[in-house]
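call fold(seq) -> tokens
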Amino acid sequence: MANPAETVKSTVEQFTTASNQAFKDNVEKSLSALATFNTYSKQNLEAVVASVTAAAKGAEAISAQTLAFSKKSMEDNVAAAKTLANCKSLQEAVEYQTSFAKTAMEAYMAQMNSMSETVTASMKDSFKPINERVTAFVERVQAAR
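ret:
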């Protein structure tokens, strides 16, 4: 028959060893999860920076387009006013004004189409890094199931 003190001592040692190993395993899992979280956080931050950078480039492009169009429009308006002032008859003035209005409206519509394309491209470029991160997250969640 075994000594009861040795049995208790052996049981306590087994329990202590098992507890220490479980604690060590949980700490390692926690550190691994924290490292993974930090990696994802860094990638998410990089995606946000890329998104904001793309949005800023889009805003800059729209601003440049608007400035160029405004400048050209102002120059065209000044030239039209000079031409209109030099018209010899009311009929000639009306014809010129009609032609100018049509040309100005066509230029405006072309500019709006161009800006719409720029905005669409900018939005696509801005959302791409965020969409990639969301997709990566969804894939990771589905893989964990």
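The mean pLDDT is 90.
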